[in-house]
């Protein structure tokens, strides 16, 4: 093109691939998905439902969903989920922890063991079957 863009159209896949002079590549798929490949190695994928996923050159990922939920995946595989209601979750190989806006924290370990810490200082521990092992009601 006169502005130095290079545009390919892949008929079989119904995909348009545009390369810009500064190195940005944009792919438009027939499904409505759009991928942007940046010169620094980052990729941004916009899905038809408007979910946006960023893949960073260092291996981290971030997805932003239409309802405002944000999911971040770190290089070590840990996942942080921030919900639009103020709740937050951390997923690791050892546990899943949900933090509530009031300060309550519930942790579920891989063996099924559960621990809930309330803002009042109360701690409740359950085994994998949901049986209360300890409850420090204050």
Automatic annotation (TrEMBL):
Record InterPro entries: CENPJ_C_dom, Tcp10_C_sf, TCP10L/CENPJ
Pfam family, one: Tcp10_C
Family of this protein: Belongs to the TCP10 family.
Top-level taxon of origin: Eukaryota
One GO biological process term: cilium assembly
GO molecular function, one term: tubulin binding
Stated name of the protein: Centromere protein J
Species: Equus asinus (Donkey)
CC terms in the record's Gene Ontology section: centriole; centrosome
Domain Centromere protein J C-terminal: 21-49, 58-91, 96-125
């Amino acid at each position: 093109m006169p502005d130095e863009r290079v545009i390919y159209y892949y008929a079989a896949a119904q995909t348009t691939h545009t390369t810009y002079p500064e190195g940005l590549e944009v792919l438009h798929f027939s499904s409505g998905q759009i991928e942007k490949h940046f010169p620094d190695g980052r990729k941004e994928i916009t899905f038809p439902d408007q979910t946006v996923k960023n893949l960073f050159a260092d291996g981290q990922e971030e997805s932003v969903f239409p309802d405002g939920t944000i999911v971040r995946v770190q290089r070590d595989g840990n996942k942080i989920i921030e919900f639009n209601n103020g709740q937050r979750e951390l997923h690791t190989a050892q546990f899943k922890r949900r933090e509530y806006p009031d300060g309550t924290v519930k942790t579920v370990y891989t063996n099924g063991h559960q621990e809930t810490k309330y803002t009042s200082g109360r701690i409740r521990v359950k085994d994998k079957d949901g049986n209360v092992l300890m409850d420090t009601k204050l």
